[in-house]
Amino acid sequence: MSSQREYDVIIIGSGPAGCTAAIYTSRAGLRTLMMGGVTPGGQLMKTTLVENYPGFSDGIRGPDLMMEMIRQAEKFGAEIIYKNATRVDFSSRPLKVFTGNEEYSALSVIIATGAGPKMLGLESEQRLMGRGVSTCATCDAPLYRGARNLVVVGGGDSAAEYALFCARIAERVTLIHRRDRLRASKIMQDRIFSEPKIRILWNSVVEDIIGEDKVEGVLVRNLVNDELSRVDCEAVFIAIGHKPETEIFRGWLEMDEEGYIITRDLVKTSVEGVFAAGEVMDKRYRQAITSAGFGCIAALEAIRYVEMVKGLR
Ligand code: NAP
User: Fold this and answer.
1) N or C: which end of the chain has fewer CB within 10 A?
2) Among the atoms of ligand 1, which is closest to the Cα of residue 120?
3) Residues with CB under 6 A from ligand 1
């Protein structure tokens, strides 16, 4: 194996948790590799204005914030590769992380792979993905400018944000939610209720997405009276939450029933020297700033661990 592929710490993921960890470990002089993934920057790359990240009184665009974080990590010497980790081997030391056939090793690993969008689980959803079905309205809704109707599924802040974004683009927006009240924060709910273009179908679920080559509508079931109805639309944006990206760690690390990595002392996983930070272990707070905070803690623990290991040599 090439010596160039040996690091003090490998950070998997490049959202706020991964970037913050990389800034801290590289600034502390640790030989740091951040595996940024093929689409670096994490979930903030898919959002518009971030208004609640401290330090930006006028807000900052999500992608701009992430590019700044990546630049900051690079400035301190972190190496960044834009590949996905495909496999790990934590059975011996140094710890190993693979991207396809390429092997990288490190004394410590920080997992900051975050969480990906949950799907409805419909065959039509898979078939029409990218042909009107999307999990990112801020990325894809502009493709449907002037549409007669766009559908958003979900009742949280993401669904609210998507619906408001779609209302700027389409003549009408239909928000489909399975309960009789939104989970979204009060400020987002107020904005939703005062936007006349948004119609909410309460107590309703999407049973099917209609269309052969492109989305033409959705089949909706009302859970109160069990009635089925068709809602015509040009696109469907699914915003029903996220699930952690932990598949490659299955069998190596303790996880809960939903696949979130279980940690103690905030960031320590069940394997010594392996730390987890951000939405891959935190399903409660899930904010960019809390993820960044966990990334900082994981880095401080990794720095301490690497120094201890080197001291023992
Ligand atoms: P979330 O808060 O978990 O909301 C998911 C929504 O989808 C819920 O309303 C849920 O319904 C619904 N849902 C879940 N599974 C479903 C299924 N199988 N079929 C139909 N509906 C389903 O997720 P999120 O909206 O992505 O937000 C995640 C976190 O990010 C939150 O902490 C949020 O505050 C934050 N966030 C903040 C902003 C902002 O401040 N601008 C923007 C986006 C996200 P129930 O309500 O019935 O459970």
Assistant:
1) C
2) 18
3) 118, 120, 154-159, 161, 178-179, 183, 185, 205, 239-242, 286
